[in-house]
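Title: [Solved] Aminotransferase DegT 3D structure

Original question kept below for reference.
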Amino acid sequence: MMKVAFSRYESGREEHGNVADVLDGENLNQVSKLEEEFAAYIGCKYALATSHGTSALHLAMLALDLKRGDKVVCSVNAFPNVAEVVRHFDAEPVFVDIEANNYNINLDLLEAYLEDNQSKKLKAVIVTHIAGVSVDLDRLYSIAKIYNVKIVEDASEALGALYRGKKIGSTGGHITCFNFSPHLKKNVCNGGMLVSDDDEIIERAKLLSNHAIVRDEDALEYIYDVVDIGNDYSMGELNAAYLRAQLVKQDSNIKRQQDIAKVYSDTLASTEHVTIPNMNNEEHPFSLYIIKVDKNRDSFALELKKAGVECGVHYIPLHLLSYYKSKYSLKINNYPIALQSFQQVLSLPIYASMSDEEVKFVCQKVKQIAKTRV
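Solution (posted by the thread starter after getting help):
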């Protein structure tokens, strides 16, 4: 029986060549080259490589000088690392409900919260671009200026994604964080990237990414000082070598994902009990293809798994997780749109190396199982 994994890492000639160069002791500046190439690809001033995507988010909080008791607003529909990096500073994540159509943070609710809770303790807003689709960033940045908060964009699923013709990470946010091995789409190499156009933010991030160590260029190499509390967020040369080859392919990968999404939508458009995503957004990169199943989503996913199709969910709302539910006394109905969406959403496999046969197989199984719903 054919099986279609939810994701699959790719390793072509370019990846092998770059990694071999490092192993042979040649071309040992892969991290710095990746940072240069990434900044050029995104169209931002600075890019700082990190060990993984969560490291980039944690470093972003350090760069913003987050402190105990500070507050950071985020979508309730995000991977746990978003709220987690806030809690590591003994700061408080504040959850906001989502839009029903794209699963991103609801800007009306965000603005209402900021209007009613103006405080020096309110430091930032973390916005997660679900499936690579952004909120109205022009409006978001305007809100940020009015209420004097920093915007950190979680672009784990948005590498190469566009907003009004510009790549996410070059549109005006204070910090954007990328993840080369996002949730449920694990890569063979981990890595993250923090990008910014802000000189002060990037200088602080660079300092704190290496234990806040400073050296006098004229002194012996082993003489150093420590001027703050940092950590080690560094990416390895082997990871960077592999990821440099991946970066070159990203735009063509997105094109392939968009083609697969069109096949999915054309084939599943009239399938009972299944709602397909909006296909009118030409900038949608379809890093995820999220359908809605009108009832018994988990049993639907289980039947797909038995039939050879792996699926994912993006995401379990944070207020349903034991730690946050008990820590902040959250109720299941506090965020009704996120709750309703969670009960229905299902992410189908979508990645550039999927064959046409695999795409057809997924469609067949979805339609076949949908017919059994009553």
